[in-house]
Amino acid sequence: MNLPNKLTLLRVILVPVFMVFAAYGRIGTAAYNPTAHLLAGIVFAVASFTDFLDGYLARKYHLVTDFGKFMDPLADKMLTTAAFIYMLVDGLCSPVVLAVIMFREFAVAGVRMIAAGSGTVIAANMWGKVKTVLQMLTVLFYYFVPFFMGATDIMAFGLITQVLCWLVALVTVISGCIYLWQNRRCFMQAK
């Protein structure tokens, strides 16, 4: 197993670690734990950096594998979906946004499974990468900004977080539509 694939597996392992800290963060509640909230953000940042690093190393050193093409986007989905679930639980992300994210991921996974049935591995496209980066930036904002803001900034923080979540939903829809259109031949082959 090459280094980029090991970094992808590290990101998968970091997902439950992130979830533990996020579960104890609970911003916006009486049980808010700023240290756990910040630690969740740090773990998320480290995991997000492995996303950049594994892709960079795989391309630079020609270490792109079918395993990486499959697991890298899956690891991203696990990480960002978990983060948006916690944002929903904390009341700062609309259920509609989470539903849009989940519908897109299920649709893309379905296309990938159909393609895999014919021996084809479909890598993420540029719009999927833009979506992932925007999701990660939104989550990083959510976990890091509260640590540095005052009590009077909480309303602005909530509003900005919600706007970012809706922007994520918009880009998610766009990227999903483009992905499905670019891979529509998979549907024709599935008949």
Element layout with pairings:
Layout lengths: L2 H23 L8 H27 L5 H24 L5 H23 L8 H23 L5 H29 L2 H5 L2
Report on this model:
The structure is a single chain. This protein has 191 residues and is an all-alpha fold. It has a single domain (3-189), classed as CDP-alcohol phosphotransferase transmembrane (TM) domain (Four Helix Bundle (Hemerythrin (Met), subunit A), Up-down Bundle). The protein is 81% helix and 0% strand. It contains 7 helices and no strands. Helix 2 packs antiparallel against helix 3 (66-89) and helix 2 (34-60) packs antiparallel against helix 5 (126-148). The radius of gyration is 17 Å and the shape is globular. The model has no long low-confidence stretch (mean pLDDT 90).
